[in-house]
Amino acid sequence: MVARKPARASRAPDLTRDARGAAPTGCGITPLFALLGKSHVLDILYVVLHEEAGPIRFVDLQRRLRMSPNTLSERLKGLVEVGLLSRTVFREIPPRVDYEATDKARELDSVFEGLQAWAKRHTLRAEPPVAGTA
Length: 134
What we know:
The protein has helices at 30-36, 41-49, 58-65, 69-81, 103-121; strands at 56-57, 85-90, 96-101. By secondary structure, it is of the alpha+beta class. The protein has a 3-stranded antiparallel β-sheet with strand order 1-3-2.
């Protein structure tokens, strides 16, 4: 008989620690940017935060963002785990799952607006080196 390992409880990632569990030594928001830097995460948050009709269904997110269901599901799971989105499952056929921004996510909206304003004023193209400097 093979001994089984006990099932691990699903825990939300600790954004105050790096992948090895160590406290970050540099910028304290690096873990946040690591999460937000994953493909499609900012797009998902933008759509959910600006959905005027309330919660948005998985299929509508998938349709609007043109993402594979697996990638979308993975990103949504991560955002739910850290408390930026809430997930509601309805016992219907076909299954219906709605996502909504939490208060925690809504606090980020002003940060996103500031970043958008900055991005409109500045470009991130590499600038040629200034003559005489090395």
